[in-house]
Amino acid sequence: DVQLQASGGGLVQAGGSLRLSCEASGLTFDDYAIGWFRQAPGKEREVISCISSVDGTTYYINSVKGRFTISSDNAKNTVVLQMNNLKPEDTAVYYCRVGPYWGQGTQVTVSS
Question: Per-residue confidence at 74, pLDDT binned at 50, 70, 90?
Fold first, then answer.
């Protein structure tokens, strides 16, 4: 079975940092696109960052550029989202996704 285990969420003050990690089992990263999504209360889930498992090319939505960094370790089947200078509007449930598979979500709350 494929499992994605996300961790690292929590409560942080504005300007703080969190590091989200997602470890996958039952699949090989090399075969899939990898990304992080988030869903804030009352809003649709949105992609915030992706990384190519082939060449490491990254993508970020404008609102997180320069603050968030995505990285992956194909050998460990792990993808990390380093989030710096967090803002209250970053508050959401964050999900990792590898191909068609979703992690369980981890809550990030940023207080002002």
Answer: confident
22 and 103 in contact (C-beta within 8 Å)? yes
Q: CA 13 to CA 96: how far, in whole Å?
A: 23
Reading the block at residue 92, the tokens are 């959401």
Evaluate whether 95 touches 89 at the Cβ level (below 8 Å).
no
* Beta-strand relationship, 92-98 and 78-83: unpaired
pLDDT above 80 for 46: yes
Residue 81, Cβ density class (10 Å: 0-12 exposed, 13-18 middle, ≥19 buried): buried
Rounded distance between C-alpha atoms, residue 88 and residue 21, angstroms? 21
The number of beta carbons lying within 10 Å of the beta carbon of residue 35 is: 21
Model confidence at 31: pLDDT above 80: no
SS3 at position 96:
strand
Residue 75's identity, in one-letter code, is A
CA angle centred on 60, ends 83 and 56, rounded to 5°: 95
